[in-house]
């Protein structure tokens, strides 16, 4: 989820700016069929584990039951069907990408996203652009090392105003 001005996080972390409706939920439930691992940074993991385990709808069941990798240099342990990766993140991702299975999705974690972008580990960018300008916050592409040329693969418009842009590295 990205704002029109490129932020993935508002300055106020409690500000809920994500545009969401049943159509978005249906899209995500369909997308989940192609994924078997969720990737999180520490902060996103802590936010998710505080919310999802207490819910029991179909979306929550996927969130709760899917395997997770949590990338953090400060956590001591991970629960909630998660494995903690506290060192050698790039090497761990290279090994994960070589395993058989479905896809992986990085839901949140600007720091780990930067690491993966700078290490050329991203195979596809699925950016859900929300029709909101945050003005400030945490940009997705803040500390990238070099120019990354992307090729537009697909575009999906949602009734709620969101636009999904799928890019792949050239």
Report the order of strands and helices: EEHEHHEEHEHEEEE
How does the overall form come out from the CA principal axes? globular
Q: Given the helix and strand composition, which structural class is it?
A: alpha/beta
Provide the helix percentage.
Answer: 25-40%
Structural overview:
The protein has 170 residues and is of the alpha/beta class. Helices cover 28% and strands 31% of the residues. The protein is built from 5 helices and 10 strands. It has helices spanning 22-32, 42-51, 58-65, 89-97, 110-118, and strands at residues 2-3, 7-10, 35-41, 67-71, 82-85, 103-108, 125-130, 137-139, 150-157, 163-169. The strands form 3 sheets. Strands 1-7-10-9 form a 4-stranded mixed beta sheet, with no helix packed on it. β9 (150-157) and β10 form a beta hairpin. The longest helix has 11 residues, at 22-32. It is globular, with a radius of gyration of 16 Å. The model has no long low-confidence stretch (mean pLDDT 93).
Short description:
It contains 5 helices and 10 strands. With 170 residues, the chain is of the alpha/beta class.
């Amino acid at each position: 989820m990205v704002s029109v001005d490129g932020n993935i996080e508002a300055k106020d972390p409690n500000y809920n700016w994500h545009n969401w409706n049943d159509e978005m939920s249906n899209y995500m439930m369909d997308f989940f069929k192609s994924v078997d691992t969720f990737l999180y940074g520490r902060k996103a993991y802590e936010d998710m584990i505080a919310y999802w385990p207490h819910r029991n709808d179909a979306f929550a069941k996927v969130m709760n039951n899917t395997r997770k990798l949590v990338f953090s240099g400060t956590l001591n342990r991970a629960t909630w069907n998660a494995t903690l990766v506290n060192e050698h993140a790039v090497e761990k991702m290279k090994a994960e990408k070589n395993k058989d299975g479905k896809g992986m999705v990085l839901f949140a974690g600007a720091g780990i996203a930067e690491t993966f972008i700078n290490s050329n580990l991203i195979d596809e960018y699925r950016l859900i652009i929300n029709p909101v300008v945050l003005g400030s916050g945490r940009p997705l592409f803040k500390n990238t090392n070099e120019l990354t040329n992307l090729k537009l693969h697909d575009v999906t418009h949602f009734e709620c105003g969101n636009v999904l842009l799928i890019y792949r590295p050239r």
